[in-house]
Amino acid sequence: MASNEIDIAVKPRVLIADDSRIVRFTLIKHIEGMFDFREACNGEEAWEMLLADRNIKVLITDLTMPRLDGYGLLQRIRQSSITGLRDMPVVVISGSDEQAERERALAAGANDLITKGMDTAHLVSRLDVLSRLVATRQEFRRGLEALAQDKCDETDSGLPPRERFEIDATILLRNAIQGKRNFVLLNVRIALRHADDADDADKHGIPPMATMDAVGRLLRRTVRQTDHVARTGEAEFMLATGSINFDAALVFARRVCHAIADADLASGGTGMIIACCGVASLSDQGLAQVEISLAQMQDIARRRAGLGIAQGFVGAVGEEEELAAAGAALALPAAEPSDSGAPDVETLLRWIREGRREQVMPHLGKLPAELRSLAELVMKRSHP
C-alpha cells in the first residue's frame, strides 16, 4: 500500500498575509522547514491566492492591511460557498494582547490569535495543531476508505493498549494543569444504526471490526506525536491533546465524525454508520475552577458522546451542546401546533442538532429567550 496516498502532507502549505515585509520574513524564518508557505501583502491578494491555490491549509493574517483588512478577509472566507475555503483555519496575528481585539477576531471567525513576538516553538506548535488536526473532511474520508479496503499489511489499528494511553494522558493532563495550558479529551463513539431501529438507541449495533481498525489506524496517522489515542471500548476511541485551541479541537472532532459517517465502509447494507464525539476540555466553565482527574474527564466525554449517539447525531457534543440538550429536555414547554406552516419548537431543536442553520434562522423567535442566544452559538459551531 502506498502510504503517501492517504497520509496528510508532510509540509502543509501556509499563506501569510501582512503588508509588512519584515513581519512576513520573520514568520517565514520561524516556520520554514516545517511548512510550505506563500505570501500576500494585502487582503485582496490573499483572497485571490486562496481561490487559486486549494493546497493552502492554514491562513495567517494581519488585521490592518490595505485594500482589504483582516476582518474583511475573514468575512469573505466564512461566507464562501466553497466548503474547503469556508472551513479553513485562520490565525490572526496581532501586535497586542488586548482581550477586546482577541474577542473581536474570534467572533469574526478566527480560530486562533498570536502576537508578533511569539517564539518559534509556540508558533510551530499552534500551526501544527491547525494543519494536522483540522484536516479536511474529504481527506479524512478518502483515507478512511482506503484503509478499510486495504487487507495487505495491517490486521489491527496499531494503537497502544488502553492502560498505556491512560498513563500518557494522565501525564499530559498534569503537565497542562501545572503549566496553565489547555487539555482536551475526545471520545469518538461509533455505532451501526439499522434503518428500522433509527429511533431506538438501545438497538444501535457495533460496526464491523474492519471499520473500527480503519478508524484507529487513521487516527494514529493523523494526530501529532505529542498527542495520545487509543481504542478504549468495543466501539470507541479516546484522544488526548494538550496546548490546543478548543475551537480547533471541536472542528477536528466534527470533521472526524462526518468523515466516518460519509465514508463507504462496506457495512454490508445492514444499516448506516453514525459517529459522535464527546469533547471535554479544561476550558469548560464547569472544570475551570476545580481539580479534575483523567477518569472524570473521560466520564464527561463519554456522557456527551452517548448523548449524541442516543439521538442519532453526527458531530461533536461539547459543553454548550450538552447544556442546550438539557435545556431542550427540561426547560422547554410542550411543542405547540404549528401555524401557517411554521415549524414547532421541537422541530427547531432537531434542526439545530442537525446543523441546519439556514432553516432555523428565520424561526429563532419561536425559541424561549433564554435558549435563543445559546442556539445561535451552537449553530455557529455546527458547520461540518
Automatic annotation (TrEMBL):
Q: Known Gene3D superfamilies for this protein?
A: 3.30.70.270, 3.40.50.2300
What the entry lists under Pfam families is as follows: Response_reg
Q: Which residues cross the membrane?
A: none
Positions bearing 4-aspartylphosphate: 62
Domain annotation Response regulatory: ranges:
13-131
Against SUPFAM superfamilies, the record matches this protein to: CheY-like, Nucleotide cyclase
The residues forming a coiled coil are: none
Q: Which domain of life is it from?
A: Bacteria
Is Phosphoprotein given among the entry's keywords?
yes
**Keywords in alphabetical order:** Phosphoprotein
PANTHER family named in the record: RESPONSE REGULATORY DOMAIN-CONTAINING PROTEIN, STRESS RESPONSE REGULATOR PROTEIN 1
Which protein is depicted? Answer: Response regulator
